[in-house]
Amino acid sequence: MIKVGILGYGNLGRGVEAAVTLSEDMELVAIYTRRNPSTVSVKSNVPVKSTEELDTGKEDIDVLVICGGSATDLPEMTPKYAKLYNVIDSFDTHARIPEHFKNVDDASQKAGKIGLISCGWDPGMFSLNRLYATAILPKGEAYTFWGKGVSQGHSDAIRRIDGVIDARQYTVPVKDALDRVRAGENPELSTREKHTRECYVVVEEGADKARIEKEIKEMPNYFADYDTTVNFISEEELKKNHSGLPHGGSVIYTGETGFEGNKHVIEYSLKLDSNPEFTGAVLTAYARAVARLNSEGVKGAKTVFDIAPAYLSPISSDELRAHFL
Amino acid sequence: MIKVGILGYGNLGRGVEAAVTLSEDMELVAIYTRRNPSTVSVKSNVPVKSTEELDTGKEDIDVLVICGGSATDLPEMTPKYAKLYNVIDSFDTHARIPEHFKNVDDASQKAGKIGLISCGWDPGMFSLNRLYATAILPKGEAYTFWGKGVSQGHSDAIRRIDGVIDARQYTVPVKDALDRVRAGENPELSTREKHTRECYVVVEEGADKARIEKEIKEMPNYFADYDTTVNFISEEELKKNHSGLPHGGSVIYTGETGFEGNKHVIEYSLKLDSNPEFTGAVLTAYARAVARLNSEGVKGAKTVFDIAPAYLSPISSDELRAHFL
Q1: Which of B94, B135, B325 comes nearest A118 by C-beta?
Q2: Which residues of A touch B138 (CB under 8 A)?
């Protein structure tokens, strides 16, 4: 049995908890929290412990799944715990991946452990599909579309506006752009042409809706480059119709082969009822790979690019060849 | 530069030739044929040699791409040349994969070489997607649909019927079945419910079309279990409208996570103008991986399941992390 610890018990931590529980070759040994453990109640029947216990380096776990935020948590936590345990995270600040990789690599090389970073679906499964497609068809172009799905970052940005009680933001791919890419047109698409943003906003009584709508639509980086629609709804409506965290999207790659330029379209798409649960399931499969590879003596920082697919599955290689190939 | 040899110069061999030519880190050094080399003219500017030269074991190649048929060629050729070179094939007789793997493993282990079998898109990329999806969502179901595309085996089977001059058979997925699977219904689908077969047949003058149509539709294994349509057309029409070798299909995986049973759909789909050129491109990317892994000391039989994705790409790991993750 592969012994798994989870650090952080938010949506992602709960997703990992559920996925590990479903894995017959894995055992969840503890959930670690920075909060007072007695205040955290978990769904599975495992102890909740303080991160202080983790800091001793003596916890009996084969791999620690670090479920923190990319902005401030993971850049600190992953290198810190990579000195003590095999670790895996879902670091998704694309621009800072090389730096994060180096920090984790330094720590885990010294410890003789593996630190797998930036796992999930994007970065993660989408990255894999960009790599596979480009390796197969070097003459071609990759397009990534996200949604329809909830962007937590954009929802949070709306919540910070004065007069807003709650908000949910959906990223929606533009159908016409999708169709053109799938048809092999290789279009140049601006940010605005690829995705729209749909906002559902609950405001305080008497709030200035016109001002709030303007603030949302003109918010730099988050909304200004997109066609954004703002819908003001009641708190009840938000709860009833927008409480899930669905997401998904597509990596579409169009490329050509041969002396006559034959065209090919490769598409990988996800439709997810729950973004954190799916991400947690991906992390769990890679946690299995991390534990196995380290037991074979492999160490250092890794990404999904470095992991042979067979390591993700509890099924034996003989069975995989006989039934999955 | 990775030095590549191609054994066999049919459609697939030509696909590999084109793909290697497009790869800046690979050099095609020779095409080997069982025919008289002087009768074979190739598109690239490389020597055509007899397989007898290959048999010496002294050809200066890092990897040999074996482009033969699965029925009789590959079960002999791949183990034979695995004793002498790194090899890769597209063996696709699913039921015989374990036996073929063992034969190649015995040969390549002894030789200190790698023999990668069953590469292409199915088996190959489709297999990978079945594996990844099952590893992420153990509670779920995989569906594979093929087409719309030309099945060479079925076209050949029609050509063997008395009175038939030429034929082209398309495998077509049933839209209603695709829709139900994508909607997450997890339907039980019979062979007939998943695919139909469309045949375009050129017959001799005065041939008994009713008898030919009946023979096609009742042919066991090939057509009897399917709804099959037979269209009699002229030789000119066959050339004009059915001379390509398009194919494709989808692996659709529906699974669930979490304590509330959230649903997820993962779909990988291919739309290929040329089946042999795309297959050749996949073989070429994996040939790169084979040469690299062997230079690191890895040996024995492998499948796509055993190859970490980064090995397929000529792009450095730093660049991959910075731009593809």
Answers
A1: B325
A2: 22-23, 314
Q: Give the residue ranges of chain A where pLDDT is below 70.
A: none
Is A17:A31 a contact under the CB 8 Å cutoff? yes
Question: Which amino acid type is present at position A40?
Answer: V
Find out whether A62 and A2 touch, Cβ atoms under 8 Å. yes
CA distance A229 to B314: 43
Residue A130 contacts residue A253 (beta carbons within 8 Å): yes
Alpha-carbon span A108 to A100, nearest angstrom: 12
pLDDT mean over B95-119: 97
8 Å CB contact between B120 and B93: no
Judged on CB neighbours under 10 Å (0-12, 13-18, 19+), B207 is middle
Copy the structure tokens of residue A265.
């379209």
Nearest CA in chain B to A274: B262
Please count the other Cβ atoms lying within 10 Å of the Cβ belonging to residue A40.
Answer: 15
Tally: H helices and E strands in chain B = 12, 14
Q: By three-state DSSP, how is residue B258 classified?
A: coil
Q: Least CB-CB distance to B101: which of A43, A280, A321?
A: A321
**How much is the pLDDT for A234?**
98
Which residues contact residue A26 at a Cβ distance below 8 angstroms, ignoring those fewer than 6 apart? A1, A2, A3, A4, A20, A284, A287, A288
Cα–Cα distance between B7 and B55 in angstroms, integer? 12
SS3 A50: strand
Mutate to test the interface with B, among A105, A178, A325 (most CBs of B within 10 A): A325
> From CA B281, how far away is CA B120, in angstroms rounded?
8
Average pLDDT of the residues in B75-87: 98
Closest CA to B308 of A310, A63, A187, A81: A310
- DSSP code, position B11: H
d(CA A37, CA A18): 19
A321 close to B320: Cβ distance less than 8 angstroms: no
Average pLDDT score over residue span B287-304: 98
Is the separation of the CB atoms in B248 and A263 below 8 Å? no
Q: How far apart are CA A236 and CA A119, in angstroms?
A: 35
- Residues B284/B26, Cβ–Cβ less than 8 Å: yes
Neighbours of A251 (CB within 10 A): 24
Give chain A's mean pLDDT. 97
pLDDT at A259: 85
What are the backbone angles phi and psi of residue B260, rounded to the nearest 5°? -100, 0
Q: pLDDT digit string (tens) for A225-260?
A: 999 999 999 999 999 999 999 999 999 999 999 988
- What is the model's pLDDT at position A7? 98
Of B97, B271, B322, which is closest to A325 when you measure between CB atoms?
B97
Residue B273's pLDDT band (boundaries 50, 70, 90)? very high
Q: Residue A20: closest CA among chain B residues belongs to which residue? A: B258
| Nearest residue to A216 via CA among A302, A307, A155, A292 | A155
Phi, psi of A158 (to 5 degrees): -70, -40
User: Cβ–Cβ of A271/B281 closer than 8 Å?
Assistant: no
Q: Is the pLDDT of residue B259 over 90?
A: no
* Amino acid residing at A193: E
> DSSP string covering B127-185, please?
HHHHHHHHHH-SSEEEEEEE-SEE-HHHHHHHHTSTTEEEEEEEEEE-HHHHHHHHTT-
Mean residue pLDDT of chain B comes to: 97
Q: What is the predicted pLDDT for the residue at B113?
A: 98
